Each structure stands twice: as C-alpha cells, then as structure tokens.
Amino acid sequence: MLSYVLISLLTIVQHQSEMRRFLYADHLFKQRAYRSAILEYKRLLFYHPDTTQADLARYRIGLSYYHQGNRERARQKFEGVTQNFPNSPLYLHAQLMIGRTYFDAKNYSTARSTFFQIANADAGGETAAQARYLRGWCYIHEQAWFKAITEFRTVQQLQPDTPLSQVSTQLADMTYANTPLPFKSPRLAQWMSTVLPGAGQIYASKLENGLISGAINAAVFYLLVDSIREERYVDAVGICLVGSRFYLGNRSDAREWTIEHNRRLEVDFIRQLKQQAQDSTPLEFQPKSPG
Predict the structure, then answer these.
(1) In this structure, are residues 225 and 243 in contact, taking their beta carbons and an 8 Å threshold?
(2) Is residue 198 part of a domain?
(3) By Cβ atoms counted within 10 A, which residue in 24, 89, 255, 290 is the most buried?
C-alpha cells in the first residue's frame, strides 16, 4: 500500500514538473524569446522523453529556429516531426513549414512539390488552402502566371469567405489584369544596337545611355572615315581597334539593360502583389500554423 502511494506521489510530482517546464517554454515562445524557448523545450524533452507534448515541443523548436532566420535547422526539426509523429495533428503543419523553408530559399520547384502533397493529403481543409496559396506564390516567382491564378482561385473554392480567400481573389484578379508583363526582347535590343548604336538602349528605356552610346560610336565612325580619307591608315587601324570596343560594348549593354528592365518589371510587380497581400489580410504573406 505504501509503495503504491509513493509511486502515485512520484507520478504526480513528475507530471507537475513536466507541465511547469512546458508552460515556461510556452511562455518564452509566445514572448518571442526564441533562443531561451528552444533551450527549455529541449530540457523538457530530455527530462520527460515520453511527454505527450513531444510533437508540439519539437514543432515549436522548429518554429523558433525559423523565426530566428535559421531555415536549414528549422527544416531539420520539422522533418523530425513528420518522421517521428506521422499521426500527429501537427504533421501537415510541419510539412507546410518545410515547404516554406524551401520557398524562402527560392527553391520553388521543391516547395511546390511539398505544397502539392499537403493539398492532396488535406483535401479541402484549411491547411490545403494555405498550401495552394503558397503554390500560387511559387508560380508567381516562376512567372507561370496562369498557374498562379489557378491556385489562387482554388483557395477561394476551398475556404470561401475567409481572409485567405479574399486576398487570394484580389491576387488572382491583379495577376490576370497585369500579365503577361510587357517584357522587352534582349536579342532585339542587341540587334538594334548592332544596326544603329544606342538604339537598343533607347528601346530598353535607357534614353540617356542610348544617346551617349550613339554619340560615341558616331564620333569613332567619323574619325575612322576621316583618317581613311586622308590616307592615315595607321591611325585608322588604331581608331578601329579602340572603336570596336565601344561598338561591341554598345551591343552588350543593350542586351544587359533590356534584361535589367525586365527584371525590374518583375520585381516591381511582385512587390505590388506582396503589398496587396499585406494590406488585405492579417496573414501577412505567412502560412498560418498552431502555436
């Protein structure tokens, strides 16, 4: 009888100790003291390896690393949750965060695959909607506009009348109205500057650079013709060698300025989309997750 009482008391004490550790770690996490929270969750798992909160503790360790900016370490912890707790309610949330770490690393192909698995596993649930939303963003960064629109429209069907659905509608409409973006052809710019130096730069919306390039090449051409007319052939060779550098550089610059023009268009448009998302929903372009 005495041994039974002692065992019961020991169990109660251990349970109280476990709960105190978890609540303290939970408090630190919610206060965004992530470094300290990681330490306390690890202590909990060390002293109470059989705790029923093990999946949540490991998941929040992953979130703490994520919020600290350590995406690689965070991914390892989330993968640990999916491997060790396949039946946990946090399984899909951990997968979603794994996909997010790939997204943040600009590995959009792997991120899309991860989000696709989540969408299939969760069918029409809230996590599936979040996965579809982030798949849409992957396609945005890959300039696959129609696929992005399709994903955003799917979110509307999965989670109607929610903040995520509302912002997805706005993003789909905005993408549909503004794409494809009015990109310019780098090859055409290069050929334009081949025929008429400076024309490619003007085509790439670099008027000043185009005029300067045209003036320099015109001056070189004039000096070359003048030296040949006056039979100063040595000077002509020198002018030709120096001028060829300006001419070839003019062609190269036209191409590079056009590429830069296109990249700037894309960056500005994505920035507008992100701003629209932040202004329209409390999600602030981040997947919703427990804790």
Answers:
(1) no
(2) yes
(3) 255
- CA-to-CA distance for 248 and 250, rounded, in angstroms? 5
Domain coverage including residue 229: 186-277
Lowest-confidence region among 72-86, 227-241, 265-279: 227-241
Q: Please report which helix (H) or strand (E) contains residue 62, including its range.
A: helix 54-67
Is position 256 within any domain?
A: yes
- Give the pTM: 0.79
pLDDT tens for each residue of 129-164: 999 999 999 999 999 999 999 999 999 888 888 888
Q: What angle do CA 268, 272, 273 make, to 5 degrees?
A: 120
Contacts of 118 (CB under 8 A, 6+ apart): 92, 95, 96, 99, 127, 128, 131
Cβ neighbours for 35, distance < 8 A, ≥ 6 positions apart: 64, 68
Please tell me what DSSP assigns to residue 224.
H
Tell me the CA distances in angstroms from 102 to 72, 99, 111, 263, one per residue in order: 9, 5, 5, 22
In a domain, 201, yes or no: yes
> Residue 69, Cα to own-chain centre: how many angstroms?
14
Report the domain count for the chain: 1
Q: Is residue 202 situated within a structural domain?
A: yes
* Collapsed DSSP state (helix, strand, coil) of residue 51: coil
| Helix or strand run (H / E) with residue 39 | helix 34-47
DSSP secondary-structure letter at 1?
-
